[in-house]
Design a protein that fits this description.
It contains 12 helices and 8 strands. It is α/β, with parallel strands linked by helices and 428 residues long. It has one domain: Ureohydrolase domain (Arginase, Chain A), CATH 3.40.800. It starts with a helix and ends with a helix.
Length: 428
């Protein structure tokens, strides 16, 4: 019996020593005198988990692009922490920081967008987090000048993957606001760089084409007063400056109250050439009808600026915004629409009015903003692949086939589906 017990103990000791223990770390060795090779360092330490690392957009390389002209790029993520032109709740100056933090789970090693069939972070373009524009919080006239000059400085540079044959000469900027007034300096800069007006696809609960005088005040000094520049008047200013393509632009997701006792706001909006899609239209048209209406209005060749005010979403989903309006679209509906219009020729975009001080504990508004920016970014990358002849179809990508963009858009333009067509006729 004693022999048997001794044998069992000996066997357990041998078996235990033969196994690799959790605590059996290899012996630490000093790095070589010449230093560890860069590729080995990158392999060991070059990847972050969603919760680690400095908070840049999707853990991308951060460069102060405004002060580093030698660093060329194709797409720049640019924060614009400006919110002193709001009419209700301030706080969107903290939006860029919140959206970047919400993008933490977007990484190059897990960034593949299954609906689009590509990973924008490992594809052809060089994408940088360009940091923020240091905008004055004290003087709106100065802030507008700063934003305009910063946009123009970046947009006028050549893209790293410049290709004139496909119209990719200058980099694309995806801006993180900030309040919605940041669209005005963007449009001013785009107009100069592209030599004319661009179409605007505007997702918002509100028109933002209001004449500045619609804000009642005995102190109103229009035209030309600094108070003209607000997050509800910037498209009115842009339209009057000839920055927006008349009859080629769209509002989507509207559910705003109007001024006064009549439809005067709509009449002003009509003069600025926007087609209005109300939030409730999705109940009649469905997502596909909304998509067809947008494509029929804009097409796929005109340069277009996509501007997404996060208040297009219902405040029950995205409460962290400055001017919430109940009854909005869901995040899923907005994302489906953005995916449906992936063929647009996007030359710039913004996601604005994320105000984290009013967000819920789960940071749902910031997460929605990060996802919206990711979808827009993916579509810009994919359009570039198609134009450059790099796109290869996959059986896993659900229909919304990119190779049929132009054919599909032409069919839409020539004859939009009956439901969508009735909406367009009503608006025209």
């Amino acid at each position: 019996m004693r022999f048997l017990a001794h044998s069992i103990i000996s066997f357990c000791t041998i078996f235990t020593s033969a196994r690799a223990s959790f605590y059996d770390n290899p012996t630490l060795e000093l790095p070589p005198d010449g230093g560890t090779p860069i590729d080995e360092l990158e392999k060991k330490w070059g990847t972050d988990f969603g919760f680690s690392g400095i908070s840049t957009w999707a853990h991308l390389q951060h460069t102060r692009c405004l002060t580093t002209p030698s660093q060329l790029f194709d797409i720049g993520i640019l924060g614009i922490p400006f919110d002193t032109s709001v009419s209700f709740r301030p706080g969107a100056r903290f939006g860029p920081r919140a959206i970047r933090a919400a993008s933490a789970r977007q990484t190059s090693f897990r960034g593949f967008n299954a609906r689009a069939g590509l990973n924008p972070y490992t594809s052809w373009p060089k994408i940088l987090d360009c940091g923020d524009i240091p905008v004055s919080p004290f003087d709106n006239a100065l802030a507008l000048r700063q934003m305009s000059e910063a946009y123009l400085e970046l947009l006028h540079r050549p893209a790293l993957s410049r290709d004139e044959s496909v119209g990719w000469v200058h980099p694309r900027i995806v801006a993180l606001g900030g309040d919605h007034s940041i669209a005005l300096p963007a449009l001013r800069s785009l107009s100069k760089v592209y030599g004319g007006p661009v179409a605007v696809l505007h997702f918002d609960a509100h028109l933002d084409t209001w004449h500045p005088a619609k804000y009642p005040s005995a102190w109103f000094e229009s035209p030309g007063a600094q108070s003209d520049f607000t997050h509800g008047s910037m498209f009115w200013i842009a339209s009057n400056e000839g920055l927006i393509m008349n009859s080629s632009s769209v509002h989507a997701g509207l559910r705003t109250r109007l001024s006064g006792d009549d439809f005067g706001d709509y009449e002003d909006d009509d003069q600025q050439g926007f087609l209005r899609i109300e939030t409730d239209d999705i109940d009649v048209l469905g997502v596909n009808g909304i998509v067809q209406t947008i494509l029929g209005r804009i097409g796929t060749e005109k340069p277009v600026y996509i501007s997404v005010d996060i208040d297009v979403l219902d405040p029950g989903i995205a409460p962290g915004t400055g001017t919430p309006e109940p009854g909005g679209w869901t995040t899923r509906e907005l994302i489906q629409i953005l995916r449906g219009i992936e063929g647009l020729n996007v030359v710039g975009a913004d996601v604005v009015e994320v105000s984290p001080g009013y967000d819920d504990r789960g940071e749902g508004t910031a997460l929605a903003g990060a996802q919206v920016a990711y979808e827009i970014l993916t579509s810009i990358v994919k359009r570039g692949m198609v134009d450059r002849g790099l796109w290869v179809e996959s059986e896993h990508v659900k229909p919304n086939k990119l190779v049929s963009w132009r054919q599909k858009a032409q069919e839409v333009i020539e004859g939009i589906g009956e439901k969508a067509q009735s909406v367009v006729k009503d608006e025209l």
